[in-house]
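lol ok so funny story. i was supposed to be doing the assay writeup but got distracted and ended up predicting the structure for this chain instead. priorities right. anyway since i did it might as well share w the group, maybe its usefull for someone
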Amino acid sequence: MRQGPPVSKPEDSQGFLDRHQDVRDTVRGPWIEGDRWIVDKKRRILTMKQLLSTALSDPRLGLALPEQLNQSFRQNARVLENKKILSLLGREGFDQALSEFLGAKPAWLKTHH
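and the output, tada:
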């Protein structure tokens, strides 16, 4: 869902409508919610693999890496999915690393009791 300009701004509203009305990636809308235009768009990125590939190919998307790692990481990064991840379960350190990654909280932020 994308939020557009306030309906009280005619020029901005017309630009939003021109960009989103009757175009292929608009799923629903536009409509007015509150005082703003809203539109539902198709997702362009559907999987983690697509997200990482896109982020690696377009630095503007915010995948920030130290310069020393940047080139190597962009060339060698792999996304493991489904059976590939399952085949690694039980390997030393992998289960804990995966659990911490999925927990989405760095170890230094976790509280210990």
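The first strand starts at residue 2 and ends at 6. Residues 10-20 form the longest helix (11 residues).
back to the writeup now i swear
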